[in-house]
Amino acid sequence: MSRIGKKPVDIPSGVTVTLNGTDLTVKGPKGELAMSFVPDVTVEHADNAITVTPSGETKQAKSMWGMQRTLVSNMIEGVTNGFSRKLEINGVGYRAQMKGKSLNLQLGYSHDIDFPVPEGIKIETPDQTTIVISGIDKQKVGQTAAKIREFRKPEPYKGKGIKYEGEYIFRKEGKKK
């Protein structure tokens, strides 16, 4: 039994929800998001809340129950507050800056990396070693942060590379003489 799936998702004021069969559209002050539900769950919109229930007793229906409820919750959170992810760059000469609609990264390679900003994502560089990724879609924000981090993952000896804010890098000791 899903414990998170049992909780209804409350709809805050200023957010409009439209439910057409298996399609859900959420509009809020930050933007609009839409999704389609899997056929294994049923969705009801009543009393300013959305309730997700499994349509059967199959393992697939029980698996999708909590996930679909969380996706709805993330959509409502995204259109009201938005999501953001912060990346930190460590290393001598490593830096990032915005150039038009692309992020320019200098990460110790022989060339600069130009990362085009995806649609619906906003990237800011408050200083040369910090990247702030924000948007209304939690999946897109996380995926964009993961792609940027992939260009130079933090290495365990000196900790150089791109890491998430607050991420702990397991450090190793170097060679001994």
Automatic annotation (TrEMBL):
A GO CC term assigned to this protein in UniProt: cytosolic large ribosomal subunit
Gene3D superfamilies (UniProt xref): Ribosomal protein L6, alpha-beta domain
Signal peptide: none
Keyword rRNA-binding: yes
Domain Large ribosomal subunit protein uL6 alpha-beta: 11-82, 91-164
UniProt keyword annotations, A-Z: Ribonucleoprotein, Ribosomal protein, RNA-binding, rRNA-binding
Highest taxon in the source lineage: Bacteria
One term of GO molecular function: structural constituent of ribosome
GO biological process: cytoplasmic translation
Alphabetized PROSITE patterns for the sequence: RIBOSOMAL_L6_1
Family: Belongs to the universal ribosomal protein uL6 family.
Subunit structure: Part of the 50S ribosomal subunit.
Function: This protein binds to the 23S rRNA, and is important in its secondary structure. It is located near the subunit interface in the base of the L7/L12 stalk, and near the tRNA binding site of the peptidyltransferase center.
Official protein name in the record: Large ribosomal subunit protein uL6
Species, as recorded: Eilatimonas milleporae
